[in-house]
Write a structure and sequence with these properties.
It is a single chain. By secondary structure, this protein is mainly beta. Strands 6, 8, 17, 18, 20, 21 and 22 form a 7-stranded mixed sheet that branches. The radius of gyration is 46 Å and the shape is elongated. Helix content is 10%, strand content 44%. Helix 1 (313-323) runs antiparallel to helix 2 (328-341). The longest helix has 29 residues, at 578-606.
């Protein structure tokens, strides 16, 4: 027959041995007994339930979680000593691991220092004679580093002391361990209920929460409690257990801005300017869908780059700050700084709890601000994505100098801002909007000097040297000859003397020539200046119009122009003497021919070979 004992074994230690003593009775009289404390047959051992846990990122199973919105942590709970067929519950709580009190010495952090009775601080001790000791002095601190009786093995002495100023040392208080709270302020908890088939096995607890507010570098530890019928029968809650711990990594982005056409840092001032911003990212959730929202900034003011008009940047920037979740007090302080510094304030962005749609609307509602957005799926935690900007930069076509600009990028995931790269001084994010330029050199077509003769058929070449055009795009150069004395276009036969050529440059810098053909016979003494304009899509992108520029100027001069090169000058007009010169030339040729014939005839008579 079987005798069943029912009792609460929770207070018994694991591996406690219990021995069953039995007595057989009839009518109250003991007939037999079995009470041998050493009898293995009568002995059972308490196998107390135990659990151990291993926490990991729910996305990829490693020990790092990305705080870019929705975060999942899985905790695999291994159990032993359970009763098969019974129902159990594992309840878990995520803890935010605190920090020990620390001393910071010239940037080096010594965590968990010990304050000694003499007022000094033991910062480090490896137990083998290598110690670091900090002691206050009248003028500051002394840091003593001992590396053992025989030195550190690298020729340095066994003990070295360094005198430090008061400001070289600071202390940070300990931060306690606390339950982790999500973006809503609620503690992060989870549980799972299961019925084991065997005494040993595993169950998984899955924590899902909004981790966008958790600082990078934070350590999260999973505490687990195993319960049956609401009673805790095992617990695993070790704040220093590496197996229970995961570390928080914040998404990060860095960007590199470049001209979309040639990859340099200069964008041509044009109505159809193009810029590519390549973002390198880290710590993204694999498979997550992200959006990069970019805005072009004016480096000189720290405000959004206005592509049209000169007002509204401060209000637009305030709207953007508000969309980023910046508190009203900060925005008010920023606006006051704008008023006092004439637009020179440079506020910093914070990745707080943000409605990404509000940010997009704040950017889109200001048409003069150049923005762009690119969406991508992160195939890996690290990678690259691009944002293409197409904006109107025509307001800088006639600027005296290039505009210094910066790209700010905002990384959005699940409608939340998770990372920002907004550094006004970052060289990688910087670029320039630079106008195109032309310079010209006018000269006589025939001998390439800058003097032409009065002539009915005069030709002047203007060599147009351009810089910073867009290769592969069609341009038109239009030239007009100006009368320097009047400052007005030269009129010949009631028409302006003009020329035009359409071309497509292969490189940003090059040369194109215009040819002016006109009647200069009535222009003796005039100085003519070539004015040039370069157009793209019927919009002027560069010009060179300087009446005082000697390189653009040619002179019509019948005297100076004829010196030494009379017959080589472009358009030489022989006038009424042309027939006389032609007749004289013909007579000279005939005379030379007659003389040659007589000389030949004389040689033949002398040789006896001449026949009539």
């Amino acid at each position: 027959m079987d005798v069943t004992f029912t009792f609460d074994s929770l207070k018994l230690d694991d591996k406690t041995e219990l021995v069953a003593f039995e007595q057989l009775y009839r009518n109250g009289v003991e007939l037999a007994a079995h009470a041998d404390i050493e009898d293995a047959g009568q002995t059972v051992e308490i196998d107390k339930p135990q659990i151990g846990t291993t926490a990991a990122d729910g996305a990829d199973g490693d020990k790092n979680v990305v705080s870019d919105g929705q975060v999942t942590v899985t905790d695999d709970v291994e159990y032993a000593g359970l009763v098969p067929g019974r129902e159990y519950t594992v309840r878990g709580t995520l803890m935010l691991k605190g920090k020990k009190a620390s001393a910071i010495v010239r940037g080096t952090v010594y965590e968990g220092y010990e304050a000694l009775e003499d007022g000094s601080y033991l910062l480090a001790d490896d137990g083998a004679g290598k110690t670091t000791l900090l002691k206050r002095t009248a003028g500051g601190w002394t840091l003593t580093m001992r590396s053992g009786a025989d030195g550190d093995g690298a020729g340095r002495p066994a003990e070295a002391a360094y005198e430090l100023a008061e400001g070289d040392v600071s202390f940070a208080d300990a931060v306690p361990d606390v339950p982790l709270v999500d973006a809503e302020g609620e503690e992060v908890r989870a549980e799972t209920t299961f019925t084991p088939d065997h005494a040993h096995g595993s169950a998984q607890v899955r924590f899902a929460f909004d981790g966008s507010e958790i600082p990078a570098g934070s350590k999260i530890v999973a505490f687990e409690s195993l319960q049956r019928n609401g009673v805790e029968i095992a617990v695993h809650a070790d704040i220093d257990d590496a197996g229970q711990t995961v570390e928080v990594l914040n998404p990060e982005i860095r960007t590199q801005a470049a001209d979309s056409l040639d990859g340099d840092k200069t964008v041509v001032a044009d109505a159809q300017a193009e810029l590519t911003d390549t973002a390198s990212y880290e710590n993204l959730a694999e498979g997550g869908k992200y959006s990069l929202v970019g805005v072009l900034m004016d480096k000189s003011t720290g405000l959004p780059l206005l592509t049209a008009g000169e007002s509204g940047a401060d209000a637009a920037y305030s709207a953007i700050l508000a969309a980023l979740g910046t508190d009203a007090q900060t925005i008010e302080a920023y606006e006051q700084a704008l008023a006092q510094a004439d637009g020179a304030a440079k506020p910093s962005f914070k990745a707080t709890s943000v409605d990404a749609e509000a940010l997009k609307q704040a950017l889109a509602s200001n048409a003069g601000i150049a923005t762009a957005e690119g969406e991508f799926t992160a195939e890996r935690a690290e990678g690259r994505a691009q944002v293409e900007f197409a904006f109107d930069a025509s307001k800088w076509i006639k600027a005296e100098k290039a505009a210094d600009c910066v790209v700010y990028e905002f990384l959005v995931h699940d409608g939340k801002l998770v990372a920002v790269h907004a550094d006004i001084d970052d060289e990688g994010q910087s670029f320039q909007v630079e106008p195109s330029e032309v310079r010209t050199t006018a000269y006589d077509k025939t001998d390439k000097d800058q003097v032409v003769l009065p002539s009915k058929d005069c030709t002047v070449i203007d060599s147009v040297q351009y810089t910073n055009l867009i290769p592969g795009k069609e341009y038109t150069v239009r030239g007009t000859l100006m009368d320097k004395s009047t400052g007005k276009p030269l009129m010949v036969a009631d028409k302006e003397v003009a020329a035009e050529k359409t071309f497509t440059p292969n490189t940003a810098d090059g040369t194109v020539e215009l040819e002016f053909a006109f009647d200069s016979s009535a222009l003796d003494g005039k100085q003519l200046v070539a004015f040039e304009k370069v157009l793209k899509d019927h919009v002027e992108v560069a010009c060179h119009e300087d009446l005082s520029d000697a390189n653009q100027t040619v002179t019509v001069d019948k005297l100076n122009g004829a010196k030494g090169k009379t017959y080589s000058k472009t358009g030489l007009d022989l006038g009424p003497w042309a027939w006389a010169i032609a007749a004289a030339a013909a007579a000279g040729i005939a005379l030379i021919a007659f003389g040659a014939r007589r000389a030949l005839k004389g040689r033949k008579q002398a040789s006896g070979l001449f026949e009539e």
